[in-house]
């Protein structure tokens, strides 16, 4: 009797110890190197285990919500509570979280299948055939000028050009398999960073189309602010439409305003008219922010008998294009609305880059080089450059990397302080003592928490940011005056210069492909989509999936780590 009781007791102790070790292993994979936090969690686990004999947790409440969304696809704010029944043996860690738009229980063996089913549903492209029962016809797009001499049995020449994209072709959105959530830049769906294939539709011409080119009226509109490459995209859309056989092509002047503003007439477009517009910056059609109600724009589309609408713009413009698409479907209009992502900020989700970004970085680098020359040529010179980036620091980060002359790069994704022992100003003191000069690059949205907010918005509804560049210029001058150290501050704000120039070679190629693919997508019957580049491949994405939030720099990404290696700057908080 005593031996049996002892065996039972030892067995129970072993199971408890094994369960505890397993939980420690799982938690150490999820945690950063915060030892105090780890000890706190282990104490809570031990108390729970002692009192109940089992351990069941909700998704960890102590994880940082921003990091959770980046790494795991869930945060403590949207995690769902889970329950485990008490058992004699320690229960496994119970994790249940909301990933993207489907609730996932990662202990469910079929969670990957559920995730992929949800993914396929979300990334299934909207089509005009969703509301119309249309039969496709053979495409009129072909680049094979010389037909094969051999013909069919009736003597008709046969075109055997194999330049079409199959409707079932897909491209992988992500290609890196992370082994741990703690890997630099890791983007994980579950806490174990399991590999899950995420396929999106490949862009390009199809063998079958859903429009008669001779009957099509196509319209192009450019919205928001200026951006290098706008004219390149307009040009390629016109060229490709004419290749299909479209004769009626118009441009809508000055953004969405052109649909309703009296006195603004649509502009007939042709290959001859747009042939050389890519040689200049700006927009051949003009741009504007804001616009009328969606219903009024669709009223105008309906009255003008537009069949295809190509919308060039950023996040706000994409949201507007999606609203137009949904209103057209609601009215059962046979209209394809296709967007082309334009923003120098590079802040649209899921895309490698948007057109205009590379050119903006190149121009921003010129401003940094000027600041470097000014700073190095002055006694205790400080070059300060403010670059665009309404919600993200991609331009500042990439321009700092490309120039190699920046000592401090400040972006909105990484908090910083100006004053104090670990502030930016103290670091500038160090740089002047050791180098004799320094260069600072700051994104326009950085450090907004340090400034008084105006609360004003522009015509697109975007919050008007306080001027961090002028604020830093004044703070730097005041600081060095107070400590009795001479400092010559040279402030450069190239905001409008970086977006008013023509596209460089890299952007010109990107604009060419995106413009052509936009037309291919419209003729394939898609609507409510955007033509973009993901993982180096050209694809179509539903607009709804790219407008949820702006894309931001991941402070744990390798690119930001490279920037820090280049600048050598410390943490400023």
TrEMBL record:
GO molecular function, one term: 6-phosphofructokinase activity
Annotated binding of ATP, by residue: 225, 289-290, 314-317
InterPro entries named among the record's database cross-references: ATP_PFK, PFKA, Phosphofructokinase_dom, PKF_sf, PyroP-dep_PFK_TP0108
One biological process term in Gene Ontology: fructose 6-phosphate metabolic process
EC number: 2.7.1.11
Activation and inhibition: Allosterically activated by AMP.
Residues at the catalytic site: 345
Binding site for Mg(2+): 315
Domain Phosphofructokinase: 218-520
Site (Important for substrate specificity): 316
Cofactor requirement: Mg(2+)
Enzyme class, spelled out: transferase
Keyword Zinc: no
Pfam families noted in UniProt: PFK
Binding site for substrate: 343-345, 388-390, 444, 496-499
Stated family: Belongs to the phosphofructokinase type A (PFKA) family. PPi-dependent PFK group II subfamily. Atypical ATP-dependent clade 'X' sub-subfamily.
Physiological role: Catalyzes the phosphorylation of D-fructose 6-phosphate to fructose 1,6-bisphosphate by ATP, the first committing step of glycolysis.
Quaternary context: Homotetramer.
Annotated protein name in UniProt: ATP-dependent 6-phosphofructokinase
Gene name per UniProt: PFK
């Amino acid at each position: 009797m005593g031996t049996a009781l002892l065996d039972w007791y030892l067995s129970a102790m072993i199971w408890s110890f094994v369960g505890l070790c397993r939980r420690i292993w799982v938690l150490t994979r999820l945690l950063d190197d915060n030892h105090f936090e780890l000890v706190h969690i282990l104490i809570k686990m031990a108390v729970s285990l002692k009192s109940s004999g089992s351990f069941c947790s909700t998704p960890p409440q102590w994880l940082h919500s921003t990091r959770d969304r980046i790494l795991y696809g869930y945060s403590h704010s949207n995690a769902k509570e889970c329950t485990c029944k008490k058992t004699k043996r320690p229960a496994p860690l119970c994790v249940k979280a909301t990933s993207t738009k489907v609730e996932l229980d990662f202990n469910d063996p079929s969670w990957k299948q559920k995730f992929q089913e949800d993914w396929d549903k979300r990334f299934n492209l909207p089509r005009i055939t969703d509301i119309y029962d249309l039969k496709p016809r053979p495409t009129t797009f072909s680049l094979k000028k010389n037909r094969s001499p051999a013909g069919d049995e009736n003597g008709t020449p046969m075109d055997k050009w194999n330049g079409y994209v199959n409707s079932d072709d897909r491209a992988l959105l992500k290609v890196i398999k992370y082994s741990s959530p703690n890997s630099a830049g890791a983007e994980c769906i579950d806490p174990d960073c399991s590999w899950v294939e995420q396929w999106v539709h490949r862009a390009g011409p199809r063998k079958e189309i859903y429009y008669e080119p001779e009957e099509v009226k196509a319209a192009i509109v450019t919205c928001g602010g200026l951006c290098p490459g706008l004219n390149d995209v307009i040009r390629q859309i016109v060229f490709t439409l004419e290749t299909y056989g479209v004769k009626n092509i118009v441009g809508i002047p000055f953004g969405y305003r052109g649909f309703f503003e009296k006195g603004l007439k649509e502009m007939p477009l042709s290959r001859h008219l747009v042939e050389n517009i890519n040689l200049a910056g700006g927009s051949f059609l003009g741009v504007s922010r804001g616009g009328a109600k969606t219903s009024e724009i669709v009223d105008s589309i309906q009255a003008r008998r537009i069949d295809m609408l190509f919308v060039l713009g950023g996040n706000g413009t994409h949201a507007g294009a999606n609203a137009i698409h949904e209103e057209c479907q609601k009215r059962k209009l046979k209209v394809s609305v296709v967007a082309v992502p334009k923003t120098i900020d590079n802040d649209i989700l899921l895309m490698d880059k948007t057109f205009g970004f590379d050119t903006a970085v190149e121009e921003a680098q010129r401003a940094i080089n000027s600041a470097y020359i000014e700073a190095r040529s002055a006694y205790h010179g400080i070059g300060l450059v403010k670059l665009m980036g309404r919600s993200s620091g991609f331009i500042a980060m990439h321009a700092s990397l490309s120039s190699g002359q920046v000592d401090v790069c400040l972006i909105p994704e990484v908090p910083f302080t100006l004053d104090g022992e670990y502030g930016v100003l103290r670091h500038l003191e160090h740089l002047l003592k050791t180098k004799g000069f320094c260069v600072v690059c700051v994104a326009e949205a950085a450090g907004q928490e340090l400034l008084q907010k105006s609360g004003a918005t522009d015509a697109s509804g975007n919050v008007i940011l306080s001027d961090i560049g002028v604020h830093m210029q004044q703070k730097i001058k005041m600081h060095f005056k107070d400590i009795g150290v001479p400092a010559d501050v040279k402030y450069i704000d190239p905001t409008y210069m970086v977006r008013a120039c023509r596209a460089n070679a890299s952007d010109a190629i990107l604009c060419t492909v995106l413009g052509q693919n936009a037309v291919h997508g419209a003729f394939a019957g898609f609507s409510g989509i955007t033509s973009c580049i993901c993982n180096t491949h050209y694809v179509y994405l539903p607009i709804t999936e790219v407008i949820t939030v702006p894309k931001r720099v991941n402070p744990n990404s390798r690119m930001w780590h490279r920037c820090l290696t280049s600048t050598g700057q410390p943490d400023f908080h």
